[in-house]
Design brief:
Blueprint: H1 10-22, H2 24-35, H3 49-56, H4 61-69, E1 74-79, H5 94-104, E2 108-114, H6 120-123, H7 132-147, E3 154-158, H8 164-174, E4 180-183, H9 194-205, H10 211-221, H11 233-244, H12 259-274, H13 285-288, H14 291-304, H15 310-320, H16 327-336, H17 351-357, H18 359-369, E5 378-379, E6 382-383, E7 389-394, E8 397-402, E9 426-431, E10 434-439, E11 449-457, H19 460-468, E12 476-480, H20 485-488, H21 496-505, E13 510-514, E14 527-532, E15 549-553, E16 558-561, H22 565-570, H23 591-596
Parallel strand pairs: 1-2, 1-3, 3-4, 11-12, 12-13, 13-14
Antiparallel strand pairs: 5-6, 7-8, 9-10, 10-14, 11-15, 15-16
Helix pairs in contact: 1-16, 3-4, 5-12, 7-8, 8-15, 9-10, 9-21, 11-14
Binding site for [4Fe-4S] cluster: 161, 228
Keywords: 4Fe-4S, Carbohydrate metabolism, Gluconate utilization, Iron, Iron-sulfur, Lyase, Metal-binding
Function: Catalyzes the dehydration of 6-phospho-D-gluconate to 2-dehydro-3-deoxy-6-phospho-D-gluconate.
Length: 614
Amino acid sequence: MGTLMNEMHPKIVEVTERIRARSVDTRTAYLDMIRARRPDTFARLKKTEGNLAHASAGCAVIEKAELLGAGWPNIGIITAYNDMLSAHAPFESYPDIIRKAARDVGAIAQVAGGVPAMCDGVTQGQEGMELSLFSRDVIAMASAIGLSHDVFDAALHLGVCDKIVPGLVIAALRFGWLPSVFVPAGPMPSGLPNPEKVRIRQLFAEGKVGRDALLKAESESYHSQGTCTFYGTANSNQMLMEVMGFHLPGAAFTNPGTPLREALTRAATQRAAELTAQGGTYLPAGEMIDERSIVNGTVGLMATGGSTNHALHIPAMAAAAGINITLEDFADISAVTPLLARIYPNGPSDVNHFHAAGGMGYLVRELLGAGLLDGDAQGVAGPISGYDREPYLEDGAVVWRDAPAASADLDILRPASDPFSKDGGLRLMNGPLGRGVSKVSAVKPENRVVEAPAIVFESQAALKEAFAAGRLDRDFVAVVRFQGPAANGMPELHNMTPILGILQDRGYRVALVTDGRMSGASGKIPSAIHVSPEAARGGPLARVMDGDVIVFDSEKGTLDINVDPDTFAKRESAPFRPNESSTGLGREMFSYFRAMAGHADTGASQFSFLAGGD
C-alpha cells in the first residue's frame, strides 16, 4: 500500500528545487539524448543480418530462435563477478538463474559483458589501492562497451561493492533509454563481533599480539561469501540502490545462498522484462532517476551514517544524468536528517542485525513519514512510497508485506521521532585549508573539536614510521597530503585508523586533515577528508608546515589555520614528487587518469557530463 507520507520537509524541498534549477540545462540536454533513442521496436531489429547472426551464435537453441525471430525482449547482463570478492562470488551462478527466469516470462537474457571488480579489503594499505577510485570510471566504460552492442531492451547490473556499484550506475544512466535493475548478492552471515576485531587490530598495532592472532581475528570476521558485514561503502551502496529505486524493495540485505535470495534474483529478472518498451510498463533508467532520486539517496546516506566515499560517488552518479549536486547540498540535507541507524563503525552491530531489527523497509517508512524521502520518486517496483515493504517466500515465490511497525532493537534502529541524533553527522568542512567533508556520526562529541600543532606527512607510511618511533605521543593534527586523485589516485588511508585510534584512546587530542580518502567504515577519529583543491594541484595543504596550529571544528564545519593569511598565501608550496607511486602494478597505465581526474568536491570523475561532454 505504501506509507502515508507527511508533508515534505521544507529544507528537502528547497535543496531539491535548487538542484533542479542549477541542473536545468544539463538535465535537459541529457533527457534530449536518451529520448532520441527511445525504442519503437526490439533493439536488435536495427542490426544487419550479419550483426544479428553474431549476436545469437553462442546462445541456446530457444534463445537463438527468439533472437532471430524477434519474438522476445532481450535483457543484457553486466556482471562484476569474480570469486576473489566475497560479495561478488555468488554472482557466478546468477546468469543461469537469470536466463531461466527470463525464459519463464518470454524473455531472453545474455551476459553483455564483465567489468573489473577489485577488493579494497585486499588492497588496503597496498600499492594496488591507488587504482581503486579510478576503477569506478573504468567500470563505467567497460559497462558501456558491453551495452554498446545495442541489442538489448533492458539491463541487469550485478554488483555490490565500493566503486563497482557507482560505476555501474554511471553506465546505466548513460544508457538511460534502457530500463535497468540492480541485482545484489547480500551480506555474509555475522562472524567475529566488530568491537573484538577492532580490539585485536589495535593490539597488533601496539605490538601486543602477533600476526597469528590478527589473521585469526580477520578470518573470523571475513569468513564466507557475501558482503563484509560492517557498514562501509559496499553496504552503503546497497542502501542507496534501494532508496534510489534501482532495487526491488528489501533486496539489499538478504543473505546469499538462501531460497529468498534466489527468488529475489528471479523476480528482478522478470521485472526487467516488464519494464521494456515491449512489456507495457516502459521505465527507462534515465527518466526514473531524477533530482528527487538523488536527494532521496543522500537522505538515506545521512539517516544511516553511511560511507563518506559517497561524497565522491553521488555527485559522479548524478552528473551522469545531468544533475549537479554539491557538498553544500550534502551539508544541508545532513542538518535536517536524523540518524536512525547505528551500524558498525557507528555502533557494535552489523548489517545483519540492522536487517533483523526492521531493515530497509522500516527505515524507508520512517523517512517517508517524516517527510524526508520523496515517495513520488520512481523505482523499478513503482513509487518509492511503496518501498516500505519487505520480501518473504510464499509457495517458493517472493511476495511483499508491510515492514514491521516497530524496531526490534532500538540500539540499532530507531524511529524518526526518537533518533540517535538530530542530524546525519556529515559536515562540510571549509576554511583557508580548502573544502572537504567530515563524518562525525561515530565521533564522540568531546573529540569533534581539536586545536593543535600540525605534523605534516606525505604518505601514510611516514605516519606509521613516526608512530613506531614514539614521536606521536602528543596532541597534534596529522596533515597527510599528496593523496588526492591527481597525485596518486586517492587511495583509502586505512592504515592510519588504528594508529590514530590508539593515540586518541591514550588521551591525546588528535585529528586528521587530508586530500585523500579514509575507509568507508572509518569511525571514531575526527577527520577532514577529500580536501580540495588537492595539494598536488597547488591546494593550501601544500603550504602547511610542521608546528602550524590547525583549528579543526567539525561541529561548526570550520577548517582553519592560525597563520597570518598574507604570510600563508605567500608561502611556497611543497613540491609534489610522484616517485614510486606512478609506476608498478600497472599504475603507469593510469597516468591519463591522474592527469584528467576532476576535483574531489565534484566527484573526482574522469567525465565532464555537467560541462556538456559525452
